[in-house]
Design goal:
Layout lengths: L4 E8 L2 E8 L2 E6 L5 E6 L26 E2 L11 H10 L16 E8 L4 E7 L6 E9 L3 E9 L5 E3 L1 E8 L6 E4 L5 E4 L5 E4 L10 E6 L4 E6 L4 E6 L5 E6 L1 H7 L11 E8 L5 E3 L4 E12 L4
Antiparallel strand pairs: 1-2, 2-3, 3-4, 5-11, 6-7, 7-8, 8-9, 9-21, 10-20, 11-19, 12-16, 13-14, 13-15, 15-18, 16-17, 17-21, 18-19
The structure holds 6-O-phosphono-alpha-D-glucopyranose.
């Protein structure tokens, strides 16, 4: 392997991980949850949020980077009946935890390859339920690309929800907006799942937990404090969850500092509500996300 690239096994908080280094970036991938934990283009700020209060305990997900919510998003009981029925068939009565099973399960490294423009890591969810498989392909270069592939290895079609639950760092929650959601309808999870319509860009002044529908393929997190834009490109997703726990919920969350809500926001590339997806026997479905960070001065 050349000096310009390296992929090393490491661990943090007792969790097995892969450290990726190349000319264009550094990154960390956790084998617990199969999630990207950090991604930093060379000479730039981190693109994913670093959680200073992250302390992992067995069975707990990692609240940092890009947790994988699969094969359902959020509270299963809030999912469409087709998702609930499919999960009952695949997993049965143990389907109680929020955001599914993948984010607190072990994943296995399937391949790691160096290319001229990126390093590619492929992981597979260990011990997936019978009839279903999940793999992740991550590419690290000047951008971060994520692809989650759900495969139906059984004999019955299923319908699922999912999300790439990305945590982004911000200079201050008062100094950011999300562009691209103007006039999208959303469900407010904090107001009895009532329907609303977005006017203008999204700003934050209170706890926010919204499921946006019919969202465009590209959204932008605009950070005026750091003069930075983070672009999320997700052509296969028509739904996006926007979350910030704000003051009270920050105090109740595990692995979360009371002031951390000021330094992060989640923009979750999703397949939820009427955007859930069905996979026939022998077929696959893929969710892709490419994240690009640029200075506001040159975008
Ligand atoms: O605390 P977690 O299970 O990691 O979930 C964190 C958050 O994820 C999503 O954004 C949901 O819409 C929120 O309702 C939830 O609070």
């Amino acid at each position: 392997m050349s000096d310009l690239f390296s992929i090393n096994k490491t661990s943090f908080n007792g969790v097995a991980a892969l450290q990726i280094r190349r000319r264009e970036c550094t990154a960390l991938v956790s084998l617990l949850g199969g999630q990207v934990m950090s991604f930093q283009p060379t000479g730039e700020r981190p693109v994913l949020w670093h959680n200073p209060d992250l302390v992992w305990a067995p069975g707990e997900p990692l609240r940092q980077g890009i947790p994988v919510c699969w094969p359902w998003f959020g509270d299963l009981r809030k999912n469409p009946p087709a998702v609930q029925a499919s999960i009952a068939g695949l997993i049965g009565g143990q389907a109680t935890q929020a955001h599914g099973i993948a984010r607190s399960a072990n994943w296995v490294l399937q391949s790691a390859d160096e290319h001229d423009e990126f390093t590619e890591i492929c992981l597979v969810l260990e011990s997936a339920p019978d009839g279903i498989a999940l793999s992740a392909r991550y590419r690290f270069g000047t951008q971060l690309s994520c692809e989650l592939i759900t495969e139906n290895t059984g004999g019955t079609a299923f319908t699922l929800s999912m999300a790439l639950h990305s945590y982004f760092p911000v200079s201050d929650i008062d100094a950011v907006n999300i562009d691209g959601l103007d006039s999208c309808h959303y469900v407010d999870a904090l107001s009895n799942w009532s329907q609303h319509q977005q006017a203008g860009s999204v700003a934050f002044s209170e706890e926010t937990d919204r499921l946006y529908q019919d969202t465009p393929p590209e959204l932008t997190l605009v950070d005026r404090g750091w003069r930075r834009r983070i672009r999320l490109n997700a052509p296969g997703s028509r739904s996006t969850v926007v979350w910030n726990p704000w003051i009270d919920k920050s105090q109740r969350l595990s692995q979360f500092g009371p002031e951390s809500y000021r330094s992060m926001v989640c923009i979750e590339t999703a397949r939820v509500l009427d955007d859930v997806f069905t996979v026939a026997p022998g077929e696959q479905s893929s969710l892709q996300l490419t994240i690009t960070s640029t200075s506001s001065d040159d975008s």
